[in-house]
Design a protein that fits this description.
Blueprint: H1 2-16, E1 21-29, E2 35-43, H2 51-54, E3 76-83, E4 86-87, E5 94-103, E6 108-116, E7 122-128, E8 132-135, E9 139-148, E10 154-165, E11 170-174, H3 175-180, E12 186-189
Parallel strand pairs: 4-12
Antiparallel strand pairs: 1-2, 3-5, 5-9, 6-7, 6-10, 8-9, 10-11, 10-12
Length: 190
Amino acid sequence: MRFQVMVVILILLSAAVPAACAYGRSVEDLVGSFSIGKTIKIGSSSECFSTADDADPLTPPASGTVSPLSDDQAPGIAGLIIQPQQVALASLPGQVNLTAHLIDDQAVWAAKAAFSGPDGGEAAAIFTSQSRTSGTAKDGIYESSMILAGNETGEWHLQNLTLVDSTGNRKTLQEGDLAGTGLPTVIAVV
């Protein structure tokens, strides 16, 4: 009887403790001319790995609060750096680093830069609060990377850049919109 009571108490205590979740990032330099970036999610329960969180990194959680001063403006981009802008075909697959200066009147949630290659390949870089290296959610510098793969020389074009704020306001800028502002949109594979 005493053992059963102890088991019930342990079950109740473990149910009262919230799930602990954490993310970690590392970049490993490999022999050759590229490195691999990894994001690892560690959790104490299956709640940490629910598909709702993983479905779309550009969708902020629903807040449910509405006020007369609600945010109705999507974020903007004040700067973009792509490094390198020229990649040797022999070094593919290779990493390209992107740095974005993102701004919003309330808070940037995430952004995604989607590229397409000369052979139809696709690559994307996602910027989130975990990738903000300086500034604030209203005016910050974000870093991300992506891997280019393929076997053709030519140009990878930034097809679109999607910007989302913490209330879900979304703006998608096409390659022409970005090139018109002087931001880089092309990576050459030579």
